[in-house]
Backbone:
Protein backbone atom coordinates (compact mmCIF):
# COMPACT_ATOMS: atom_id res chain seq x y z
CA UNK A 1 0.00 0.00 0.00
CA UNK A 2 1.31 3.48 -0.89
CA UNK A 3 2.27 6.01 1.76
CA UNK A 4 -0.60 8.33 0.81
CA UNK A 5 -3.18 5.55 1.00
CA UNK A 6 -1.92 4.43 4.41
CA UNK A 7 -2.48 7.96 5.75
CA UNK A 8 -6.09 8.02 4.59
CA UNK A 9 -7.15 4.73 6.16
CA UNK A 10 -5.75 1.72 7.99
CA UNK A 11 -5.21 -1.59 6.24
CA UNK A 12 -8.17 -3.91 6.94
CA UNK A 13 -7.57 -6.67 9.45
CA UNK A 14 -8.65 -10.33 9.15
CA UNK A 15 -12.09 -9.72 10.67
CA UNK A 16 -12.73 -6.75 8.39
CA UNK A 17 -11.69 -8.75 5.34
CA UNK A 18 -14.10 -11.54 6.29
CA UNK A 19 -16.88 -9.02 6.94
CA UNK A 20 -16.34 -7.37 3.56
CA UNK A 21 -16.48 -10.74 1.85
CA UNK A 22 -19.73 -11.54 3.60
CA UNK A 23 -21.15 -8.21 2.44
CA UNK A 24 -20.11 -9.03 -1.13
CA UNK A 25 -21.73 -12.46 -0.99
CA UNK A 26 -24.92 -11.01 0.50
CA UNK A 27 -25.09 -8.29 -2.17
CA UNK A 28 -24.55 -10.88 -4.93
CA UNK A 29 -27.37 -13.01 -3.52
CA UNK A 30 -29.70 -10.02 -3.43
CA UNK A 31 -28.91 -9.22 -7.06
CA UNK A 32 -29.49 -12.85 -8.08
CA UNK A 33 -32.82 -12.91 -6.26
CA UNK A 34 -33.91 -9.70 -8.02
CA UNK A 35 -32.87 -11.07 -11.42
CA UNK A 36 -34.69 -14.35 -10.74
CA UNK A 37 -37.82 -12.46 -9.67
CA UNK A 38 -37.76 -10.31 -12.83
CA UNK A 39 -37.31 -13.39 -15.04
CA UNK A 40 -40.15 -15.13 -13.20
CA UNK A 41 -42.46 -12.16 -13.79
CA UNK A 42 -41.51 -12.08 -17.48
CA UNK A 43 -42.19 -15.78 -17.77
CA UNK A 44 -45.50 -15.42 -15.95
CA UNK A 45 -46.49 -12.70 -18.42
CA UNK A 46 -45.62 -14.96 -21.34
CA UNK A 47 -42.64 -12.91 -22.53
CA UNK A 48 -40.54 -16.04 -23.15
CA UNK A 49 -43.01 -17.77 -25.43
CA UNK A 50 -41.58 -18.84 -28.77
CA UNK A 51 -43.95 -16.78 -30.88
CA UNK A 52 -42.68 -13.56 -29.32
CA UNK A 53 -39.08 -14.42 -30.25
CA UNK A 54 -39.76 -15.98 -33.64
CA UNK A 55 -39.51 -12.62 -35.40
CA UNK A 56 -35.79 -12.43 -34.55
CA UNK A 57 -35.11 -15.63 -36.48
CA UNK A 58 -36.88 -14.39 -39.60
CA UNK A 59 -34.35 -13.17 -42.23
CA UNK A 60 -36.60 -10.34 -43.41
CA UNK A 61 -36.97 -8.79 -39.96
CA UNK A 62 -33.34 -9.45 -39.06
CA UNK A 63 -32.28 -7.59 -42.19
CA UNK A 64 -34.54 -4.68 -41.27
CA UNK A 65 -33.21 -4.62 -37.73
CA UNK A 66 -29.57 -4.64 -38.86
CA UNK A 67 -29.74 -2.41 -41.95
CA UNK A 68 -32.53 0.05 -41.16
CA UNK A 69 -31.84 -0.08 -37.43
CA UNK A 70 -28.25 -0.74 -36.43
CA UNK A 71 -26.59 0.66 -39.55
CA UNK A 72 -28.55 3.92 -39.40
CA UNK A 73 -27.76 4.24 -35.70
CA UNK A 74 -24.03 3.81 -36.33
CA UNK A 75 -24.16 6.29 -39.21
CA UNK A 76 -25.83 8.95 -37.08
CA UNK A 77 -23.33 8.42 -34.28
CA UNK A 78 -20.34 8.46 -36.66
CA UNK A 79 -21.36 11.73 -38.35
CA UNK A 80 -22.12 13.28 -34.97
CA UNK A 81 -18.78 12.26 -33.43
CA UNK A 82 -16.82 13.54 -36.46
CA UNK A 83 -18.61 16.88 -36.25
CA UNK A 84 -18.24 17.01 -32.47
CA UNK A 85 -14.47 16.57 -32.66
CA UNK A 86 -14.18 19.50 -35.08
CA UNK A 87 -16.64 21.58 -33.02
CA UNK A 88 -14.81 20.80 -29.79
CA UNK A 89 -11.40 21.59 -31.26
CA UNK A 90 -12.49 24.97 -32.65
CA UNK A 91 -14.39 26.18 -29.60
CA UNK A 92 -11.97 24.59 -27.13
CA UNK A 93 -9.09 26.51 -28.66
CA UNK A 94 -11.30 29.60 -28.83
CA UNK A 95 -12.00 29.43 -25.09
CA UNK A 96 -8.25 29.58 -24.43
CA UNK A 97 -7.68 32.59 -26.66
CA UNK A 98 -6.01 35.70 -25.27
CA UNK A 99 -8.51 37.86 -27.14
CA UNK A 100 -11.73 38.55 -25.29
CA UNK A 101 -13.79 39.02 -28.45
CA UNK A 102 -12.93 35.39 -29.33
CA UNK A 103 -12.87 33.84 -25.86
CA UNK A 104 -16.23 35.09 -24.57
CA UNK A 105 -18.40 34.13 -27.58
CA UNK A 106 -16.80 30.67 -27.57
CA UNK A 107 -17.49 30.39 -23.84
CA UNK A 108 -21.14 31.37 -24.37
CA UNK A 109 -21.64 28.83 -27.19
CA UNK A 110 -20.05 25.98 -25.22
CA UNK A 111 -22.00 26.69 -22.04
CA UNK A 112 -25.27 27.05 -23.97
CA UNK A 113 -25.03 23.73 -25.77
CA UNK A 114 -23.80 21.94 -22.65
CA UNK A 115 -26.82 23.15 -20.69
CA UNK A 116 -29.58 22.30 -23.19
CA UNK A 117 -30.75 18.64 -22.97
CA UNK A 118 -30.06 16.56 -26.06
CA UNK A 119 -33.74 15.74 -26.64
CA UNK A 120 -34.70 19.42 -26.65
CA UNK A 121 -31.82 20.15 -28.99
CA UNK A 122 -33.10 17.47 -31.37
CA UNK A 123 -36.58 19.01 -31.33
CA UNK A 124 -35.19 22.52 -31.90
CA UNK A 125 -32.96 21.29 -34.73
CA UNK A 126 -35.82 19.37 -36.32
CA UNK A 127 -38.12 22.39 -36.42
CA UNK A 128 -35.29 24.68 -37.52
CA UNK A 129 -34.33 22.44 -40.44
CA UNK A 130 -37.89 21.44 -41.29
CA UNK A 131 -40.24 19.09 -39.38
CA UNK A 132 -40.34 16.14 -41.76
CA UNK A 133 -39.04 12.57 -41.74
CA UNK A 134 -36.54 13.48 -44.47
CA UNK A 135 -34.80 15.89 -42.07
CA UNK A 136 -34.93 13.69 -38.96
CA UNK A 137 -31.53 12.09 -39.60
CA UNK A 138 -29.86 15.49 -39.98
CA UNK A 139 -31.63 16.90 -36.92
CA UNK A 140 -30.27 14.10 -34.72
CA UNK A 141 -26.75 14.53 -36.13
CA UNK A 142 -26.82 18.30 -35.55
CA UNK A 143 -28.09 17.95 -31.98
CA UNK A 144 -25.53 15.31 -31.05
CA UNK A 145 -22.76 17.28 -32.75
CA UNK A 146 -23.28 20.50 -30.83
CA UNK A 147 -23.91 18.80 -27.48
CA UNK A 148 -20.96 16.39 -27.59
CA UNK A 149 -18.81 19.05 -29.25
CA UNK A 150 -19.43 21.39 -26.32
CA UNK A 151 -18.39 18.65 -23.91
CA UNK A 152 -15.27 17.86 -25.95
CA UNK A 153 -14.36 21.56 -25.96
CA UNK A 154 -14.09 21.41 -22.17
CA UNK A 155 -12.21 18.11 -22.41
CA UNK A 156 -9.71 19.72 -24.79
CA UNK A 157 -9.26 22.70 -22.51
CA UNK A 158 -8.77 20.48 -19.46
CA UNK A 159 -6.32 18.25 -21.33
CA UNK A 160 -4.18 21.20 -22.43
CA UNK A 161 -4.18 22.76 -18.97
CA UNK A 162 -3.20 19.42 -17.43
CA UNK A 163 0.10 19.38 -19.31
CA UNK A 164 2.90 20.59 -17.00
CA UNK A 165 3.39 24.34 -17.26
CA UNK A 166 7.11 23.93 -17.80
CA UNK A 167 6.47 22.46 -21.25
CA UNK A 168 4.93 25.69 -22.52
CA UNK A 169 7.45 27.89 -20.71
CA UNK A 170 10.34 26.02 -22.29
CA UNK A 171 8.77 26.37 -25.74
CA UNK A 172 8.26 30.12 -25.26
CA UNK A 173 11.87 30.44 -24.10
CA UNK A 174 12.93 28.94 -27.43
CA UNK A 175 11.05 31.67 -29.26
CA UNK A 176 7.99 29.70 -30.39
CA UNK A 177 4.68 31.46 -31.00
CA UNK A 178 1.57 30.54 -29.05
CA UNK A 179 0.04 28.72 -32.04
CA UNK A 180 3.21 26.65 -32.38
CA UNK A 181 3.26 25.88 -28.67
CA UNK A 182 -0.37 24.81 -28.77
CA UNK A 183 -0.17 22.61 -31.88
CA UNK A 184 3.35 21.19 -31.53
CA UNK A 185 3.93 20.97 -27.79
CA UNK A 186 0.69 20.93 -25.80
CA UNK A 187 -1.80 19.18 -28.08
CA UNK A 188 0.23 15.97 -28.67
CA UNK A 189 0.68 15.53 -24.93
CA UNK A 190 -2.94 16.42 -24.18
CA UNK A 191 -4.15 13.66 -26.53
CA UNK A 192 -3.11 11.04 -23.97
CA UNK A 193 -5.35 12.69 -21.41
CA UNK A 194 -8.21 13.42 -23.80
CA UNK A 195 -8.50 10.03 -25.51
CA UNK A 196 -10.51 8.20 -22.80
CA UNK A 197 -12.97 11.10 -22.57
CA UNK A 198 -13.30 11.29 -26.36
CA UNK A 199 -14.12 7.58 -26.56
CA UNK A 200 -16.59 8.02 -23.70
CA UNK A 201 -18.38 10.73 -25.69
CA UNK A 202 -18.49 8.42 -28.71
CA UNK A 203 -20.39 5.90 -26.61
CA UNK A 204 -22.67 8.63 -25.27
CA UNK A 205 -23.43 9.79 -28.81
CA UNK A 206 -24.23 6.25 -29.89
CA UNK A 207 -26.67 5.73 -27.02
CA UNK A 208 -28.28 9.15 -27.42
CA UNK A 209 -29.32 8.28 -30.96
CA UNK A 210 -32.12 6.32 -29.27
CA UNK A 211 -33.79 9.66 -28.53
CA UNK A 212 -34.15 10.25 -32.24
CA UNK A 213 -37.45 8.38 -32.33
CA UNK A 214 -39.12 11.47 -30.84
CA UNK A 215 -38.32 13.38 -34.05
CA UNK A 216 -39.18 10.40 -36.29
CA UNK A 217 -35.51 9.59 -36.96
CA UNK A 218 -34.46 6.14 -38.19
CA UNK A 219 -32.40 3.77 -36.07
CA UNK A 220 -32.74 0.87 -33.69
CA UNK A 221 -35.43 2.41 -31.51
CA UNK A 222 -37.59 3.33 -34.51
CA UNK A 223 -37.36 -0.18 -36.00
CA UNK A 224 -37.88 -1.85 -32.62
CA UNK A 225 -41.06 0.19 -32.07
CA UNK A 226 -42.46 -1.05 -35.37
CA UNK A 227 -41.63 -4.65 -34.40
CA UNK A 228 -43.16 -4.70 -30.92
CA UNK A 229 -46.26 -2.86 -32.04
CA UNK A 230 -46.83 -5.49 -34.72
CA UNK A 231 -45.98 -8.59 -32.68
CA UNK A 232 -46.81 -7.35 -29.15
CA UNK A 233 -43.39 -8.42 -27.84
CA UNK A 234 -42.06 -5.26 -26.23
CA UNK A 235 -39.81 -6.98 -23.65
CA UNK A 236 -38.08 -9.40 -26.09
CA UNK A 237 -37.55 -6.56 -28.56
CA UNK A 238 -36.06 -4.29 -25.92
CA UNK A 239 -33.74 -7.07 -24.74
CA UNK A 240 -32.50 -7.72 -28.27
CA UNK A 241 -31.95 -4.01 -28.95
CA UNK A 242 -30.15 -3.60 -25.62
CA UNK A 243 -27.82 -6.49 -26.49
CA UNK A 244 -27.07 -4.86 -29.85
CA UNK A 245 -26.18 -1.58 -28.16
CA UNK A 246 -23.99 -3.41 -25.66
CA UNK A 247 -22.21 -5.31 -28.44
CA UNK A 248 -21.43 -2.15 -30.41
CA UNK A 249 -20.21 -0.36 -27.28
CA UNK A 250 -17.91 -3.26 -26.42
CA UNK A 251 -16.48 -3.19 -29.94
CA UNK A 252 -15.99 0.57 -29.65
CA UNK A 253 -14.22 0.15 -26.32
CA UNK A 254 -11.94 -2.53 -27.78
CA UNK A 255 -11.15 -0.25 -30.74
CA UNK A 256 -10.34 2.60 -28.37
CA UNK A 257 -7.97 0.41 -26.38
CA UNK A 258 -6.20 -0.66 -29.56
CA UNK A 259 -5.91 2.91 -30.82
CA UNK A 260 -4.54 4.06 -27.48
CA UNK A 261 -1.85 1.38 -27.47
CA UNK A 262 -1.08 1.77 -31.18
CA UNK A 263 -0.92 5.53 -31.58
CA UNK A 264 -0.61 6.95 -28.07
CA UNK A 265 1.74 4.31 -26.76
CA UNK A 266 0.19 3.96 -23.33
CA UNK A 267 -0.69 0.52 -22.00
CA UNK A 268 -2.93 2.03 -19.37
CA UNK A 269 -5.25 5.01 -19.38
CA UNK A 270 -3.20 8.08 -18.54
CA UNK A 271 -4.60 9.80 -15.49
CA UNK A 272 -4.93 13.56 -15.46
CA UNK A 273 -2.99 13.77 -12.22
CA UNK A 274 -0.08 11.99 -13.86
CA UNK A 275 0.33 14.68 -16.48
CA UNK A 276 0.36 17.76 -14.31
CA UNK A 277 -1.65 19.88 -11.95
CA UNK A 278 -5.14 21.08 -12.75
CA UNK A 279 -4.84 24.51 -11.12
CA UNK A 280 -3.02 26.13 -14.03
CA UNK A 281 -4.24 29.32 -15.63
CA UNK A 282 -5.09 29.79 -19.26
CA UNK A 283 -2.01 29.76 -21.46
Residues:
Amino acid sequence: MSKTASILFDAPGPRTVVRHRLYSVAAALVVLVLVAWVLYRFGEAGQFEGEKWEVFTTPEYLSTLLVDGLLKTIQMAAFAVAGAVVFGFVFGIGKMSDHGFVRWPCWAVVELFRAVPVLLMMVFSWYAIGPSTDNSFLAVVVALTVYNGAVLAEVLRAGVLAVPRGQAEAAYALGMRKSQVMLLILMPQAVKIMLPAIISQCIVALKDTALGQYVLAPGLTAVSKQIYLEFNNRVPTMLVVALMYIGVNLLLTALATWLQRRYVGEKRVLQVSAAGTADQTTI
